[in-house]
User: Fold Shikimate kinase from Desulfosarcina ovata subsp. ovata.
Amino acid sequence: MSKAMQKPNIILTGFMGTGKTTIGKRLAKELSYNFIDTDVMIEKRAGRTIQKIFEELGESAFRKMESAVVSEIAGMQGQVIATGGRLMLDPGNAAALSQTGMVFCLVATAEEIFERVSKDNQNVRPLLAGEDPMARIVNLLEQRKDGYGRFSQIETSLKTPDEIVNILLARFQIKFRSTIAHKRQ
Assistant:
C-alpha cells in the first residue's frame, strides 16, 4: 500500500448548511483523525471573517485563499476535511484533495438548508445576502448540481448527525477496502 493511502483523508463537500462541519467533527472523533475546516483556516490566516474577506477583498481573493489552503493540506493524511461550499467545484482543488482522500458530497433539500442556515447565528453567509435567500439557495443549488454530482452523495435531510456519520463510515470502509485490494494487485 502506498504511503499516501495508509490513512486516506475524508473530504466533505457540499452546499452550505448540509452539515460538513458538524458531521466532520464527529467523523474525525470516531476515526481518531484530525479535523480541518478550510473556512476556519482561511479566517484565522486572514484575521477576519469570510464575510469581511468578501466585503473588503472580494470573492476572487477568497478563492485564491482557498486554493492556498488546499495546496497546504493536500499532502496530509488522516484528516477529515470540511471544505467551503464551492471549494471542490474548482477542478484544481478537487484534483489536489482527491489524491490522498475520498470525497463525499453532503446534500440536503433547499428547504432544509434554508432552515439550518436561518438558525445559524454564528456564521454569516455572504452568498445569501439579499432579499430572497431561499430563491438564492435554489439558484445556487441548480448552478452547482453538476459539480456536486461528480462526488459520492450522502443525503442529510431528515437524518440525525449520528445517522449520517454511520452512513459515511460504512461507505468509507467499503471504499477503503477496495483501495487496499486494488493496491495489492
